[in-house]
Design brief:
Its cofactor is FAD. With 421 residues, the protein is α+β, with helices and mostly antiparallel strands. It contains 13 helices and nine strands. The radius of gyration is 22 Å and the shape is globular.
Length: 421
C-alpha cells in the first residue's frame, strides 16, 4: 500500500520543514520494506568478505579495503541520501542493522561504516534546502563517496567536539582552514572530510561551523600513527589539516544545532549498533562452543549451557536498548525542539553509556563459557579480537565526559519514568 510521506528537511528550520510537508512524495511502503531487506542481505554478503580479512586488518592495523570495495560495489554507502537526490532514503533502523551486521564480521568495518553514515546524516538533516550540499549528496550516492570527520583538535580542547581552536578565514569567495592535531579516522582513505572550526578566528570556541572539504581541496600531514589495542582497522591517525574551498561548502546551520539535532542521536545509536554486533558475534561463538561440547557428551547438558542461557538474556536486553533508542529517535526526528530537549539528550547519552558497558561485559561472559578456547588466538572460538575491540567503547567519547554532561542536565531535569517515551 502506498502512502504520502514528507521528504526529510532541516530540523533547525521549522518553516522549511513545514514547506516540505506541503510537497509530499508518494512512497510505496511495501516496496520500501523489501528494498531495505535487500540492503541488509547485501550487507551480510559484505560481512562475510569483511570476516575473511578481519584478522589481517587487525594484525596490520590497515584499512579494511576489501570490505569497502564490496560496500561500494553493493552501493551501500549512499543509502541514507534522500531518493530525490539519488539515494535510497533508508531508515536509521536499517542503517543500524547494516552497521551491526558488518561489525559481526569485522568490528573496524562496522565502525567505519557507522562513522561515515553519521557524517552523511549531518547533510541529510540540515542541507535539504542548500543547492551545493544537495549536489554533493547526489555525488555521494552516485560515486559512493566515503566521508570522514575532523571534529577534534589539539591545542588543549582534547576530545571536546564542541570547542575549536582554529577558525575559518574568509578569502574572497573561498575560505581557508588549518587545524592541528586532529584525529581523523580513515583520513587517508576518505573522499571528503566534514571539519569543524570557529566561525571566524575571533569567534568564541563554541561558535562553530562545519564545512565539507573534498580530497582535492586539502592536504593532510600525519603527526601520529594509530597503534592501539583494538579497532585497529579504523586507522585513526592524527593529522595536521590544511584546506581551501569555496565558502558555499560551509553548512549554513550552526554546528551547535548539527551536534544536538543529528550528530548526537546518530552517533550514539549507530555506535551502539556496532557494539551490539560485536556482542552478538561473541555470543554466537559461545553458542557454537556449547553445541560442540554437547555433541561430545550426548544425553548430558554441558555446565556452560546455563551461563549461555544467562548470556542470551543479556544480549536480548542489549538489543531492546538499541531498538528502543531507534524508535525514540524515529518519533522525534521531525521535531527540532524534542531533539534538543534535555530529556532526549539524557536518553541518548544513557544509551551510549549502557551500550558501551554491555559489550565488554557480554564478551567477558562469553570468555567464561569458552574458557581457554576463547582465550587462544588460533581457536575457532577465539574472543581475543572481539574483546580488544569492545574495550574501545567506553573511551570513544569517554564515558566520564558524557556522565559529567548528563549530571549537569540532571540538576535541572527530572527524568520521565513512564514507558511511553
Amino acid at each position: 500500500m502506498a502512502r504520502l510521506a514528507g521528504r526529510p528537511a532541516p530540523q533547525s528550520q521549522p518553516g522549511m520543514l513545514a514547506e516540505s510537508r506541503q510537497r509530499p512524495v508518494l512512497v510505496d511502503l511495501g516496496a520500501r520494506a523489501e528494498n531495505e531487506k535487500a540492503m541488509v542481505a547485501k550487507a551480510r554478503a559484505v560481512a562475510r568478505i569483511a570476516a575473511e580479512h578481519a584478522a589481517d586488518v587487525d594484525a596490520k592495523a590497515r584499512f579494511p579495503q576489501e570490505a569497502f570495495d564490496a560496500l561500494r560495489a553493493q552501493r551501500l554507502l549512499g543509502i541514507m541520501i534522500p531518493a530525490a537526490d539519488g539515494g535510497e532514503q533508508a531508515s536509521l533502523a536499517t542503517i543500524a542493522e547494516i552497521a551491526s551486521v558488518l561489525a559481526q564480521g569485522c568490528s573496524s568495518t562496522g565502525m567505519i561504516y557507522a562513522m561515515h553514515q553519521i557524517k552523511v546524516s549531518s547533510l541529510v538533516v540540515h542541507c535539504a534546502a542548500d543547492s551545493w550540499h544537495r549536489g554533493f549528496m547526489a555525488r555521494i550516492a552516485r560515486e559512493q563517496l566515503l566521508l570522514a570527520s575532523a571534529t577534534t583538535e589539539g591545542g588543549g580542547v582534547g576530545g571536546d567536539l564542541r570547542s575549536s581552536v582554529c577558525g575559518v578565514v574568509r578569502d574572497g569567495e573561498d575560505f581557508t582552514l588549518e587545524k592541528e592535531g586532529c584525529l581523523i579516522s580513515y583520513g587517508a582513505q576518505a573522499d571528503a572530510i566534514l571539519i569543524t572550526a570557529r566561525r571566524t578566528p575571533e569567534a568564541p570556541p563554541s561558535d562553530q561551523v562545519m564545512a565539507v572539504v573534498t580530497r582535492d581541496q586539502y592536504r593532510l600531514e600525519r603527526s601520529a600513527v594509530w597503534d592501539t589495542m583494538g579497532m585497529r582497522g579504523t586507522c585513526s591517525d592524527n593529522f595536521t589539516f590544511a584546506g581551501r574551498a569555496p565558502a558555499q561548502q560551509i553548512i549554513p546551520t550552526p554546528f551547535a544545532e548539527i551536534a544536538a539535532q543529528s550528530m548526537l542521536a546518530h552517533a550514539h545509536l549507530l555506535w551502539a549498533a556496532v557494539w551490539y554486533g560485536i556482542a552478538a558475534e561473541a555470543v554466537a561463538r559461545a553458542e557454537s562452543f556449547v553445541r560442540g561440547e554437547a555433541r561430545k557428551r550426548p544425553g548430558t547438558t554441558p555446565p556452560s549451557a546455563l551461563r549461555l542461557a544467562e548470556l542470551l538474556a543479556r544480549l536480548q536486553q542489549f538489543k531492546a536498548l538499541v531498538v528502543a533508542g531507534l524508535d525514540r529517535y524515529e518519533r522525534a526526528r521531525d521535531d527540532a525542539d524534542e531533539l534538543s530537549s534535555m530529556g532526549f539528550v539524557v536518553a541518548m547519552n544513557s544509551i551510549k553509556i549502557a551500550a558501551s558497558q554491555s559489550v565488554g561485559e557480554i564478551v567477558s561472559q562469553a570468555f567464561l563459557i569458552c574458557g581457554i578456547q576463547g582465550y587462544r588466538n588460533d581457536s575457532p572460538s577465539s574472543l581475543t579480537r572481539l574483546m580488544r575491540d569492545a574495550l574501545s567503547a567506553p573511551i570513544m567519547i569517554n564515558n566520564d565526559r558524557i556522565l559529567g554532561n548528563t549530571s549537569n542536565l540532571l540538576a535541572v531535569y527530572k527524568h520521565d519514568s513512564s514507558l511511553s517515551r
